[in-house]
Design brief:
Elements (H helix, E strand, L loop, with lengths): L1 H23 L6 H4 L3 H33 L5 H25 L4 H14 L6 H11 L4 E15 L6 H5 E16 L6 E16 L3 E5 L5 E5 L4 E20 L4 E4 L2 E3 L6 E21 L3 E5 L7 E11 L2 E8 L13 E11 L1
Antiparallel strand pairs: 1-2, 1-13, 2-3, 3-6, 4-5, 6-9, 7-8, 9-10, 9-11, 11-12, 12-13
Length: 346
């Protein structure tokens, strides 16, 4: 009974499709059509055409018998009885002729299942295995990401002037991530990429970053009311690390297994390095507004390490610079520490 329902669904689908295209002369392929195997579509359309031919042939014969019945001038009860017998006889005959066509529904369903898995028709186990191996190969991709983190400056020396007056600091970053799974079932992957990072340091207590003619930088008190003050530095960043995925190995048949490294719980660690693009000192107060791009003695190179915990495409991370935030002896030994969230576009 279930097979009959499935079969009738196929027949109705393709009959309706064929009728609508014949009436409207439209040949645009829809998404649903592309999800049906061409072989399955051909077989079902051929079967539907044969069924339609059988029905039309038997219908003509039945109509001829009914005309003969009408000329007998039977009373209504006798007429209805013989009419029902004729209908039953032709219905049984149609069923027998359809059954004699020998339509193999199981084979058609099997072909459609294979097509749905692989988006192609296969004719042998060898070809099927090759398609599966291609579909479930190791995960190797380049995807985008966006991250935002809260930053602070750590120092194992006594607090300097910046440590005493530092305000809210943050790190905004976006870029591309390279993911290279070592093998089809391996939980390990190598990660790298290219990112653009903007680090912003703000100061409290009405203090601003200033510099003198020798490009020495220091903090000084702003004379008026300060609305905005931040020192923003951009870097081009390159990470290199490893990632471990805790998702289970899946079996797709024919002795082929794989592990989906894009889903589930993951941990990773990496080192990173970056080169400075520019530094902007942004000040806005009641006296004036200043945007000055120049040398504020921020370290032109940055390097450090990061630890990440992820679930699907959401990650939380902590990263620590090993390099000083500023060059030479300016605000000596201050190093960036960032806690943040990353969203991957996989």
């Amino acid at each position: 009974m279930i097979k009959k329902f499935i079969l009738m669904g196929f027949v109705c689908l393709f009959s309706a499709s064929a009728y609508s295209q014949r009436s409207l002369k439209i040949s645009l392929s829809s998404k649903k059509e592309t999800e049906v195997s061409p072989i399955v579509k051909e077989k079902v359309e051929e079967y539907a055409a044969k069924i339609n031919t059988i029905i039309q042939e038997e219908k003509k014969l039945m109509e001829a018998d009914l005309l003969v019945l009408q000329v007998k001038n039977l009373d209504k009860a006798a007429f209805d009885k013989e009419k029902a017998q004729i209908a039953d006889r032709y219905s049984e005959k149609i069923d027998q002729r359809i059954e004699a066509l020998g339509f193999d529904l199981d084979n058609v369903i099997q072909k459609q299942v294979k097509y749905s898995l692989l988006n192609t028709d296969v004719t042998s186990n060898e070809e099927l295995k090759a398609k599966l191996l291609k579909k479930f190969r190791p995960a190797r991709s380049v995807t985008g990401y966006f991250s935002y983190g809260i930053m602070t400056l750590t120092n194992d020396l006594p607090d300097n002037e910046l440590d005493k007056n530092i305000g809210y600091a943050n790190n905004l970053e976006f870029g591309l991530k390279l993911h290279y799974q070592l093998s089809r079932t391996s939980p390990w992957a190598v990660t790298s990429g290219l990112g653009f990072s903007w680090r912003t340091v703000r100061t409290d207590n009405n203090m601003i970053f200033a510099r003198n003619a020798e490009n020495s930088i220091f903090l000084e008190q702003y004379s008026g009311n300060l609305d905005k003050n931040k020192l923003r530095t951009g870097y081009i960043m390159v990470p290199l690390g490893i990632q471990y995925n805790f998702s289970k190995i899946k079996n797709v048949g024919m002795d082929i297994q794989y592990r989906n490294c894009y889903e589930g719980f993951k941990v990773g660690a990496n080192v990173y390095g970056g080169v400075q693009m520019s530094t902007n000192n942004i000040i806005k107060g009641n006296d004036a507004e200043l945007r000055n791009r120049g040398n504020y003695q921020v370290n032109p190179y940055v390097y450090g390490a990061q630890f990440t915990v992820s679930y699907d495409n959401i990650s939380v991370f902590v990263k620590k610079d090993f390099s000083n935030y500023f060059k030479d002896s300016y605000f000596k030994n201050d190093k960036a520490l960032v806690f943040g969230v990353t969203i991957g576009f996989e």
